[in-house]
Amino acid sequence: MSAQRGRLRGSRVTPAARAARVDGMDMFLTSRRGAALAALAFVAACAPTTPPPAPLPPPSPGLERITGQPAAAATTMLGAPTLDRSEPPGRMLQFARTQCVLDVYYYPPTPGAVPVARYAEARKPDGKPTDAGACAQAIAVVAPPAPVAPAPAVTPKAKPRS
Known about the structure:
The chain is of the alpha+beta class. The protein is built from 4 helices and 5 strands.
């Protein structure tokens, strides 16, 4: 053991070999530091980031008054939700009625902004899928906006009889 220990101490190592070993050790330590920094940079690059939200698809017929709007628009049109589930940053309102069940999903367009309706899906009470726009129209409690009525026609006044 002592002979082995002597070799480790460098008793039989020439000064040039000893200098090479020191330089090699410095290179090893530098390589370890470099590897540690590279690993740290790799881990930092893999950190989750919030991607920008996808642009809203055009609303399907029946969802024009909900898509892209805050939750108040859906509750105004459809009444009180039967379920309000919050899973930050998202939120889901469910409107379960006898005709169908409509789920509307809300996400903020930018971090910290008011969530807006980004997606809706619907199903019949038996669980079969159905069109979300048709479901929204079927369960709406507020009539759709009325078309502009034409101005009333002017009727001539009757002449008084003498």
